[in-house]
Design a protein that fits this description.
The complex is a heterodimer of chains A (401) and B (493). Chain A has 401 residues and is of the alpha/beta class. Helices cover 45% and strands 8% of the residues of chain A. Chain A contains 19 helices and 9 strands. Chain A has a 4-stranded parallel β-sheet with strand order 7-6-8-9, with helices on both faces. A 3-stranded parallel β-sheet of chain A has the order 3-4-5. A two-stranded antiparallel sheet of chain A has the order 1-2. With 493 residues, chain B is α+β, with helices and mostly antiparallel strands. Chain B has 15 helices and 19 strands. In chain B, the strands form 4 sheets. In chain B, strands 12, 13, 14, 15, 16, 17, 18 and 19 form an 8-stranded antiparallel β-sheet that branches. Chain B has a 5-stranded antiparallel β-sheet with strand order 5-6-10-8-9. Chain B has a 4-stranded mixed β-sheet with strand order 1-2-4-3. In chain B, β8 and β9 form a beta hairpin. In chain B, α8 packs antiparallel against α10, α12 packs antiparallel against α13 and α13 packs across α14. Chain B is globular, with a radius of gyration of 22 Å. Classes of the chains: A alpha/beta (401), B alpha+beta (493). The interface between A and B is large, with 50 and 60 residues.
C-alpha cells in the first residue's frame, strides 16, 4: 500500500469535499463566473481531470482502496494548479456570507501534495520535469543554460550593484528566455531612480517548477540556498517581477521555512507605488488593451488591482476587461508544470484565452508574468491572431521615453 | 482487452472509455457519502445520441448494466451503481445548446448541459428556464434535473419543478432505440412547442425516472422572459414558525399569482445551529439572532405591479409574526443574495461541511402539502427525540429541518435529514438512521422526488406503493427493459 504521507497530512481537505462538482464547469454570471477548469475541455473529460475526481482519488489512496499508477500520475500532472476550482468551491462571493467548506480546502496545495506522493512512489514527475530537475541540480536553472549566463541579458556597459536595501530577484525565465522583460523592468527601476541590487551568482532558481510538480526535496534545497543568500545580502526588501518566483518566495518559502527576514513585493505593486509618487511619468500611449490575470499573481496571491491601477495611470491606455477576470480569470495554461510536461495542452488552453481576449477588440493583451507571456504568444501565433501579447513592464517601459 | 471494452471503444472512441481503476473509482458515488462506494467496471463518455444508443445496444448484447449520470450530484445514490460493476454512462460531454427558439419560447439542449451554463446563455437574450434546476444547478445537468423533478436552484415557487416545463424529450430506450416525445412524436411537427397531445403523455414516463426507463439525450424546455422588476425581503418570524410559514404560503396562494419567485423558511434550530456549529458562522449578519427566518423573492413586469403585490404579500407576512430585516445583505437580507448574486445555487452549501471536514449530509428532503409542514416538522422532532441517544453515540449526529421552500402550487419541499460523519466506524449506523428517518417520513405521507437508491428502496420497503401500482411499475420496466440494463436496483427493479 502506498504511503501517501503528504496527502494524508491534508486529509481534512479531502474529507471536506462535498462532491458537488462546481469545480467542473460552474457558471454564475451575476458574479462574473463562466466555467472553471481550463484543462477539462481539452481532456477526455473524465472526473479525474478536474478537482472533484482528484479529491475522490485522494480519498481512495488515503484509505488504501486505490494504488498509485503511472496512468494516474499522468492525469495528476495534467493540471495547471491555477486554483480556479478553489475560487469556485463553495465561495459565496459575498463578504457577509462564508460557506464552511470554502475554508477547509486549498485545492492547489492538495494537488501538489498528491504529486509529491507520486514522486515518492517513483511515478512522478513527468519525464521532461526530470530533465529540468537534473539540469537545475547542476546549473541552478531549468532552462538547460549555464549558471553564469543568467546576467547575459544586462545591456553592455551597465553595472548593477551587489548590495542595496532592495534586491531584485530576477528568476530564470526572463534572464534566459525573455531578456526583453528584464530589460524593461531595469529601465523602469532606473527611470524611477530606485536603488537596487542583484545577488548573482548567489541567485538560484526559486524552485517554483519543483514545488508545483512535487519535487519537494530539490525545491527546498533551492529555497534554502536563496533564503540564505538573500539574508546574507542584507536585503530588507526583495522585488520580483516573475509571478511564479513571486508566488514561490512570498508563499511557498514561508510555508516551508517560516517567516522570512525580508519583505517580498511584486514588481506591479512597486511600480504602482512609484507611479503614485510621481516617480514614473509615461507618455501618451494611445492603445486599447485587455488585462490577463496571471494565476500566480491573482488567485494565488490576491494581486488584482495593482496592474489595473498601473494601466489606468498610463495616459492613452484604454483598459477593456475580458469576460473572465480576477478570481474567475481563465488560466493561460502554462502553470503547474504543464508547459514543460504537456506543451500542446498548454497552448490549447492559451488559445481559449486569446479568443476571449479577441472579443474585447483590444490591440494588446497585457499581463504580468513571463510564463503567461510565453504561452499566450505561442497561442496567438498558432491562431494567427492580430492580438499582441506584452508584459505590463514592456508596455510601461516603451512609454517612458 | 475485454470484448466489452473493445466494443465500447468502437462505439465512442478509445479516448472516451476507461476501465482504469482510478477513473472508475471517481464515479463510485455521487454526493451520497454515507452509501458504499461502488465503482463501475467501465466509464464511457459518449458525444452523440447515436453513440449513447450504441452503448445501450452493447450493454444488451453483453447483458451488462448501465447507470446514466449527469453532474453526479444526487444525494440519495441516484447517480452511481447500486452494485459494483457495469457501465457508467457520463452524459456531460453532450452539452450543446441545439436551438433557442424565440417563436415557440423553447430551448432545445443536449441533456448533459448544466442548468447554470444553459441559463447563462439564455440570460444574454433576456430569458431563463424559470425553474433553475436543483440547488446544485451549477454542476447538475438538465438530464439529471429532469430525472429527479428537481427544484431548489431558484424559481420553484413561481415555476414549480423543472419537469413541469419540459416540452419534449429525445430518449434512448433500454433496447437501444431512440424516440422523440411531446410534440416531436409526430414526424410532421415543425418544431417542439407543446408536451401534451398525440395520446398519452409518454414524456412523463421518463421524467423523474432516475434513469430507470431510458436515457434522456435531448430535452426541449420552455423559456420565459426574465421580468424587469424584483424584490427580495428577509424577515424574522415568530414561533410557532412552521405553522406561521405554512399559513403565509397558503394565504398567498389563495390570493392567486403574486409573482413570488422563491420563498423559504429557516427554522430556529437551523438559525441557531449555523451560529453554534462552526467557529465562523456562515451568515455573519445573523449572529445573535434568536428567531426563525422567513424570506421571499418576487418578480413583476412593472413597478406598479411589484408594489401592489408586495403590499399584499407583506401584509400577510406581518399578520403571521414576520418582522422585516434591513434591505441589504449586511442587514441579514439573504433573499437579496439569492436573487441578485445567484446565491440560489449555493443555498444548502452552508450545511455541507457544517460540522467540519468529514461531516456529510444524509438528506431526507421531500415534498409535502403546504398545510402539513407543521405536522411533518413535529414528526421529525419526535423522531429525533426517539433516536437522540443513537445519534449521539454515532459521533454526535445532527438532524432536523434545514429549510422548507415553497415550490409548485401548494407544495413545499421540506429539506430534512441528518448530518453525520463519513468515517468507517460510523457508516453502518449512518445508513441505518438515514433509512429509519426515510421510512418514517414515507409513512407520514412524504413524497420524495430525488428518489435515488435510498428513497426508491424505502418506497418498496415501507410498502408505500399499493400492490397494483408497484406491479404496474414493474410491468412497465419489464416491457421496456427486459434485460434489466438501465439502473438496476432502483425500486428493487
Amino acid at each position: 500500500m502506498a504511503k501517501m504521507e503528504n496527502t494524508k497530512k491534508l486529509s481534512d481537505m479531502v474529507y471536506a469535499c462535498s462532491g458537488i462538482g462546481d469545480c467542473r464547469i460552474a457558471y454564475r454570471w451575476a458574479v462574473g463566473r463562466y466555467g472553471v477548469c481550463p484543462v477539462l475541455e481539452h481532456s477526455p473529460q473524465f472526473d479525474p481531470f478536474y478537482a472533484r475526481g482528484k479529491i475522490r482519488i485522494a480519498k481512495g489512496l488515503i484509505e488504501g482502496e486505490l494504488e498509485p499508477s503511472e496512468e494516474l500520475a499522468k492525469v495528476l500532472y495534467q493540471c495547471t494548479t491555477c486554483g480556479n476550482c478553489h475560487s469556485a468551491c463553495h465561495q459565496s462571493m459575498c463578504e457577509y456570507i462564508e460557506l464552511p467548506i470554502s475554508r477547509f480546502i486549498d485545492h492547489t496545495k492538495l494537488f501538489e501534495a498528491m504529486r509529491a506522493d507520486m514522486v515518492e512512489e517513483g511515478l512522478g514527475p513527468m519525464p521532461r520535469h526530470k530533465e529540468l530537475m537534473e539540469w537545475t541540480k547542476k546549473e541552478h536553472n531549468p532552462y538547460m543554460e549555464k549558471h553564469e549566463d543568467r546576467i547575459k541579458w544586462i545591456p553592455e556597459g551597465k553595472t548593477i550593484p551587489q548590495k542595496a536595501d532592495m534586491v531584485w530577484f530576477m528568476g530564470c525565465t526572463e534572464p534566459y528566455r525573455q531578456p526583453e522583460l528584464a530589460q524593461a523592468f531595469l529601465k523602469i527601476l532606473e527611470a524611477a531612480g530606485v536603488e537596487f541590487a542583484i545577488i548573482h551568482p548567489e541567485e538560484w532558481c526559486c524552485g517554483s517548477i519543483f514545488f508545483r510538480t512535487g519535487v519537494w526535496g530539490l525545491a527546498e534545497e533551492l529555497a534554502k540556498h536563496n533564503i540564505e543568500a538573500l539574508k546574507a545580502s542584507g536585503a530588507k526588501r526583495v522585488v520580483i517581477h516573475c509571478a511564479g518566483c513571486y508566488r514561490t518566495i512570498a508563499k511557498d518559502y514561508p510555508e516551508h521555512f517560516g517567516e522570512l527576514p525580508f519583505q517580498v513585493v511584486n514588481a506591479v505593486e512597486l511600480i504602482r507605488d512609484l507611479m503614485k509618487e510621481g516617480k514614473l511619468k509615461p507618455s501618451e500611449a494611445n492603445v486599447k488593451v485587455t488585462y490577463h490575470d496571471p494565476c500566480h499573481l491573482g488567485r494565488h496571491m490576491g494581486i488584482y488591482d495593482a496592474p489595473r491601477e498601473i494601466l489606468e495611470m498610463m495616459p492613452g491606455v484604454e483598459l477593456v476587461e475580458m469576460r473572465r477576470i480576477r478570481d474567475a480569470a481563465w488560466c493561460c495554461g502554462a502553470g503547474g508544470g504543464v508547459k514543460s510536461g504537456f506543451p500542446d495542452l498548454a497552448v490549447e488552453i492559451a488559445k481559449d484565452r486569446i479568443k476571449e481576449a479577441e472579443e474585447t477588440e483590444a490591440e494588446l493583451i497585457v499581463t504580468a508574468c513571463p510564463f503567461c507571456v510565453r504561452n499566450l504568444k505561442d497561442a496567438s501565433e498558432a491562431l494567427n491572431s492580430k492580438l499582441k501579447v506584452v508584459d505590463i513592464v514592456e508596455l510601461l517601459a516603451e512609454n517612458l521615453g | 482487452m475485454s470484448s466489452v471494452l473493445r466494443a465500447l471503444e468502437d462505439a465512442v472512441g478509445s479516448e472516451y472509455v476507461s476501465d482504469e481503476d482510478f477513473v472508475t473509482y471517481a464515479y463510485a458515488r455521487g454526493m451520497d457519502a454515507a452509501l458504499p462506494a461502488n465503482p463501475p467496471e467501465y466509464v464511457v463518455k459518449p458525444g452523440t445520441t447515436e453513440e449513447v444508443a450504441e452503448v445501450v445496444r452493447i450493454a444488451n448484447r453483453f447483458k451488462i448494466p448501465i447507470v446514466p449520470r449527469g453532474g453526479g450530484c444526487c444525494l440519495t445514490g441516484g447517480s452511481k451503481p447500486i452494485e459494483k460493476g457495469g457501465i457508467l454512462l457520463d452524459t456531460t460531454r453532450m452539452h450543446r445548446i441545439i436551438n433557442i427558439d424565440e417563436n415557440t419560447l423553447t430551448v432545445t439542449v443536449e441533456c448533459g448541459i448544466t442548468w447554470a451554463e444553459l441559463n447563462s446563455k439564455l440570460n444574454e437574450l433576456g430569458y431563463y428556464t424559470g425553474n433553475l434546476g436543483p440547488g446544485s444547478g451549477m454542476s447538475a445537468v438538465v438530464g439529471g434535473g429532469l430525472s429527479h423533478h428537481s427544484v431548489g436552484g431558484g424559481g420553484g415557487a413561481k415555476y414549480g419543478t423543472c419537469s413541469e416545463h419540459c416540452v419534449a424529450l429525445e430518449v434512448v430506450l433500454p433496447n437501444g432505440n431512440t424516440i422523440n416525445t411531446g410534440s416531436n412524436a409526430s414526424v410532421y411537427t415543425k418544431e417542439p412547442f407543446c408536451r401534451f397531445g398525440f395520446g398519452p403523455d409518454l414524456t412523463g414516463l421518463f421524467l423523474g425516472d432516475n434513469g430507470l426507463l431510458g436515457i434522456k439525450t435531448k430535452a426541449t424546455l420552455e423559456i420565459f422572459p426574465r421580468p424587469k422588476y424584483h424584490a427580495a425581503k428577509t424577515f424574522t418570524i415568530e414561533e410557532p414558525s412552521a405553522e406561521n410559514a405554512a399559513k403565509i404560503w397558503l394565504a398567498w396562494r389563495k390570493r392567486g399569482d403574486l409573482g413570488i419567485y422563491d420563498s423559504q423558511w429557516w427554522p430556529l434550530i437551523m438559525v441557531l445551529g449555523l451560529q453554534l456549529l462552526l467557529d465562523v458562522p456562515p451568515i455573519k449578519p445573523w449572529v445573535g439572532l434568536q428567531k426563525a427566518v422567513f424570506w421571499y423573492t418576487m418578480e413583476a413586469e412593472t413597478e406598479e405591479q411589484l408594489e401592489a403585490n408586495m403590499k399584499i404579500v407583506d401584509q400577510i407576512c406581518k399578520e403571521h409574526g414576520c418582522e422585516e430585516m434591513g434591505p441589504e445583505i449586511k442587514d441579514g437580507n439573504i433573499a437579496k443574495w439569492h436573487y441578485e448574486e445567484q446565491g440560489h445555487w449555493l443555498n444548502w452549501h452552508s450545511l455541507w461541511g457544517g460540522m467540519g471536514p468529514g461531516s456529510v449530509p444524509l438528506t431526507t428532503e421531500h415534498h409535502i402539502a403546504i398545510h402539513r409542514v407543521p405536522y411533518i416538522s413535529q414528526k421529525l422532532d419526535e423522531w429525533e427525540a426517539a433516536h437522540r441517544a443513537e445519534l449521539d453515540a454515532n459521533g454526535g449526529m445532527q438532524t432536523g429541518i434545514s429549510t422548507a421552500i415553497l415550490c409548485g402550487h401548494t407544495t413545499v419541499e421540506v429539506d430534512s435529514g441528518l448530518i453525520g460523519w463519513d468515517k468507517p466506524e460510523y457508516r453502518e449506523k449512518n445508513l441505518e438512521l438515514w433509512k429509519s428517518q426515510i421510512e418514517m417520513l414515507l409513512r407520514e405521507g412524504a413524497m420524495p422526488y430525488m428518489v435515488g437508491e435510498m428513497y426508491s428502496k424505502g418506497l418498496i420497503d415501507t410498502e408505500a406503493f399499493s400492490g397494483t401500482y408497484y406491479e404496474f411499475l414493474k410491468n412497465v420496466k419489464q416491457a421496456l427493459d427486459p434485460n434489466r440494463i438501465l439502473s438496476p436496483g432502483k425500486f428493487y427493479l
